[in-house]
User: Fold these one by one.
Assistant:
Number 1:
Amino acid sequence: MNVRSQGKAPEAPSSSLGASRGGESLTITSVDKTFGGKREVTALKEVSLAVAPGEFLSIIGPSGCGKSTLLQIVAGLMMPSHGKVFLGANDVTGESAHMVYLFQQYSKSLLPWMTVEENVMFAFNHRLHLRKKAARDRCSEYLEMVGLDDFGKYYPWQLSGGMQQRVAIARALSSEPKVLLMDEPFSSVDALTRMELHALVQELWERKRFTALLVTHDVDEAIFLADRVAVLTHRPATISEIVGVDLSRPRRPVEVHENPRFLEMRHHLLNHLLRKPEQSDEPPV
Amino acid sequence: MFKRTVTDAMAEFPITGILLVLLMLAAWEVSVRSGLVRSTNWPAFSAVTAALWNGMLHGELLPVIGSSLWRMLRGYLLGSAIGITVGLAIALVRPVRLTLEPAVELLRPVPITAVIPPLIFLLGLGDSLKVFCVALAAFFPVALNTISGVTGIEPIYGQVARTFGIPRFAALRRVILPASLPFILAGLRTSLGLALVVTVIAEMIAGQDGVGYYLLSMEYAVRAPEMYAAIILLALVAYALNRGFVWWESRLIHWARTREAAGGRA
């Protein structure tokens, strides 16, 4: 099994790195995050990670371990206490250009006063300033990709949960981000819808080849979608292990879930996750 | 799908409420006709209706209510516009909040009627005084509701705007304003009622025309039917203003209500 224990922090990338496929690699260098207040809580400690351009990386860990915090820092929605985030050779710490965050609470992240179409166009029109026709075309292109081209005039709250999340995916991708950051995006839909969404995200990723970072506590989901799976330990979170997923693509949900390699990785990762946190001073959340 | 059914609407129709109003008007009429109350200060409802009819068609009532409404409208729009602007500034800009909020909190509980006499020294008895009073009265509910609307926005809306790199002004226009619109509109509705009240009071205290002045004049002239006609007209105008506002409001923020009706998957 392609397993390595926590390595050294990647160096700040040189400009030649990550130039393949026109993409830029995403590098996280020894990021710490401490939340102030009466009792200081260290959420993240020395988290370092390098994601190749076009790679799909899953991050799993127990709930409350700081996965979302890490993702928000990468997204530029939160500042780290220490450490930096690079896209290619550029320091993008605290910036959100070229990256889009797909929220867990899809029903809240879609703006209820805008129709599905307006929600999607909102994502790119303020950056791209397209003409009306071009904007509409782009919007319907992406809605078609997620199978919702007939629902542009609806309001998001008129759609089912799975459809809303597909709108959110279309909106996120329509701004053509270099990096898509997904924060447990499938955790609040039913199991079947979740599998459909997995297949959809895999298909869109193969088509668009953005760099993808998925945070989840669902081991199956993490393996199914990813090229590599990183394991975060309990608070303060550090990366304890990175597992490479050597399953061929495209992956089909039913087949993959019966694949012996899949089961082996699943077994390994679950064992790893269920191990008691030894030096944790807090009860598991 | 989200429209209420016809039977629902019928079940909500206030038949008994309308009957009660009719009954009270009938009792009024009977109290005079039966000779139960004999006073020049207590005309029959029919006499008041006649005064209202004549006053509106070829009398003095139409210009009277017109000048009051025009005055109210100017004060209301001025106060509301400043209220929204100041409310946004207080909610969004910390130095502004720290500077203005104590003053707003201190001035807010002062009854507007109490400051009319000193304001007469500053602004005279003319229109500017009354428009200013209305604006002042309209300002506070709008400003305070704008503040609570903006500060209560779902944090995720701000994150959405940031992740898509929406420029500040566009985020204000397309996210912050719509998200807080239900609150702002509630403030505007409160202010609308208040604006009419203050218009009438200001006209009573420092009037040359308008409904407030007219009411007092008719009282002094012992023209009771005209006095009551003016009051009924005020009631009708206030009712119409409120209904019109509610209709406009429900069109502007239809998404907020229908979303709740649809189960409000929050």
Number 2:
Amino acid sequence: MFQTQYPSRLIHDKIYELLKQGKRMDRRRPLEFRKVNISVNLIEKASASALVSMGGTKILVGIKVDVGTPYPDNPNQATLTVSAELLPLAYKTFEPGPPDENAIELARVVDRCIRESKAIELENEVLCYIPGQRVASIYLDVYVLDYDGNYFDPAVLASVAALATAKIPRYEVQNGVVKKAGDDQVSIPMRKFPVSVTMGVLNDKFLVDPTAFEESALDTSIVVGWGDEDEVAAIQKNRPGTIPIQALEELLEISRKCSIELRSQLLESLKTYAASAE
Amino acid sequence: MTDFVRAGDLVVPGDEISDEVKRGGRNTYLLSGRVRASVFGVVVERNNKFEVIAVKGVYKPSKGDYVIGVVKDVKPNVIEVDLGEHIVATLRPSSQRRRTERLSIGDVIYARVKYSGLRGVILEYDASLRKIEKGLLVRVNPVVVAGLLDKRHGLLNVIRSEAGCNVNVGMNGVLVISGPSVDSELAVLSAIRSMEEDFTSPDLVDRVVAQLRRSLIVEVEGDEGGGDE
């Protein structure tokens, strides 16, 4: 399709015309996600890894856990550092170089979804070795491998899937020194499984999980991260444009319902993985 | 004075097209008195010349081509038009031919190439320039364009009679399909996509018509199913 980074009147009008009939170019319903595939533990050397595809968009997340120092304002908490890269091979407008504002935005949204929902028990003794001095440092890296619209939702899915299936060494403190306790491995303790839902806005119509083609026609879009069924963890309006307040309430309710559906898919995949790992 | 191919034939580089030197057009070359194809593609006849439209490859604009583009930027003296595939053409509005409607970013236009060369691609700013107000904008392989414009097939007429849709064809591989309903436009789109898979078989027209009829029926049934929602 003719995808442009600037709006094309024809595409905008055509997608709106379809939405008024409750249809989309790829035959999805307006509030329907594309097909999601989640696989974990593909990268041997990483503490955890997850590959999620949502339609044509593919995201790879890798997690590395090290021993580090906590931040002074949270001395008894493990640290979490999220970074994201929009790889040039993923899309024609992704250029090589340090992360641009879009990559930074992706990293920030993933970070906020996980951090603000308190999904990880960062104060758990499994991650906190010498309070105030030595804690686990969790490095979470997001790589967009293939882009066909909406990298936020699969990135959050992959991050949570990786965190949930991570295996890190068990450490113990001997004479004030943090050492590995043999070959023992533990999981990263988690309370919640945050999930995000990206919605596009076209005049007065909404659609969930836009493709790259649809994104070129949107008036604006919004990403809502839900820690669980009742709690919003993060909201990001990732495009210029305005959203009326009345529309915002409807969007939040749509995202809540969609997040429940998406979370159940995620948990299903994790269950399948856990069963096969035994 | 013989032609060795007909319009619609598939040729490979080196294939002889004609021994009439003047009949060599785009993507052909001359060797030993014969006009030959220089790319792998489909032969079309335009302005009494044979040219070859490459099966795969970037569109190379040439003077006289009709193209469809999206207005990318409007500057004081020049309008930039995106023709796809990183070709950005320019339009220079002249005061002599003042247009009543002004172009703005996002508008889709149908224009003729005035010049294509070292200075870039320049489009004509005259009566041949028009704005396309509505329709389904799609990008196809330029080879499909060859098939659509081939008068022997008459595909554009077939599409009009079967689906009621008009197809604006740009040589740069951009089409705008406009019809009575979105469903008919999407049906035409799927028929055109089927052309991309096999553009050389002799029953091309029949296949396209069959695909069109299939898609139109599917859309109507889909409507009836979901009509109560």
